[in-house]
Amino acid sequence: MDLDREKLIADIKKLEASKVLIIGDLALDEMIYGDAERISREAPVLILQHTKTKLILGGASNAAHNASVLNTGKTGVIGVCGDDYYSELLLETFEKANIDCSGIVKDKSRKTIVKTRISGSITTSITQQIVRVDRQSKGFISDETEEKVIKKIEKMLPDYDAVILSNYHIGTLTPKIIEYTISLANELNKVVVVDAQRDLGSYKNVTSMTPNLPDTEKSVGFEIDSEDDLKRAGRKLLSETDAKAVLITCGADGMFVAKPNDNFTKIPVFNKSEVFDVTGAGDTVTAVYSLALAAGIDPVYSAVIGNLAASIVVRQFGCATTTIEELVTAAQNLKI
After folding, report:
1. Half-sphere exposure of residue 154: CA atoms within 13 angstroms, side-chain side
2. Active site includes 25?
3. 3-class secondary structure for 21-72?
4. Residue 220: in which H helix or E strand, if any?
5. Catalytic residue (one of 29, 161, 215, 283)
6. In the 8-state DSSP scheme, what is residue 159?
7. Is the dihedral of CA 286, 292, 296, 298 positive or negative?
8. What is the tens place of the pLDDT at every residue in 83-122?
9. pTM value?
């Protein structure tokens, strides 16, 4: 594809001005590390000597973290957590990341969403994940909590340029919350971007959405094996949602942007040979893409900037972020 490098760099520098609100399943990633010491006498399992614990914003929280680094804290979140040990850690981690977490509703009946990854290493090997433990509640939030969330949206959304609906299907984004958010955002002329894993056709009148390839296939009901299939999928999602654009992320095959009137753009992947960990890369793309759309940048260049951001974070382990400076450098070094 043909790109104007000067335009790309100028567009990247616009991201800092965009204010974005993330609504969805807010999660905390607890990373526990240790050195493999010996096999336990109690059971055939490793004993790890604990070395450190790292707390990282995951799920919808990761999209917020990526946005906050780029727009210097002009980022807010709305969601639900439990009233437990991890809820305080989640709030503290948001505050350290310079993210407005006043929109988080505590619900004693639910667990704070936490993914605990336990990793071990020995002197002659790299660190490897051994097990993951998930803590989360099943089912949608209660009617009472839903009303509290809607009040938070009513209060906070007018102060932002864009809203991201980040749905990991853990129960925060009820049909009522989704419908209300989109309706209010459209009324206020805000950018609305959907990042969901299924039921994409149920999000009506949004600005855009950022499904990956498997989630797109689930929603459209057919396998995608070619660019013609991508076009067909793009047409279907545009027709079902009345979105202004659809960004389909295709992993090692890059990205595909579909706009109305059969306006399609295939974007190649950047730095393909330097992938270490794709964890959270989709959240990075959604956050950066949304900031760009909110800055008035067209969907194709917005997707390219998101692609550049993903090429940077996949070179780091775990959910990672990038900066304006790193994006500008990547654009300068990009082979066009």
Report:
1. 7
2. no
3. EEEECEEEEEEEEEEEEEECCCCCCEEEEEEEEEEEEEEHHHHHHHHHHHCC
4. helix 213-220
5. 283
6. G
7. negative
8. 999 999 999 999 999 999 999 999 999 999 999 999 999 8
9. 0.91
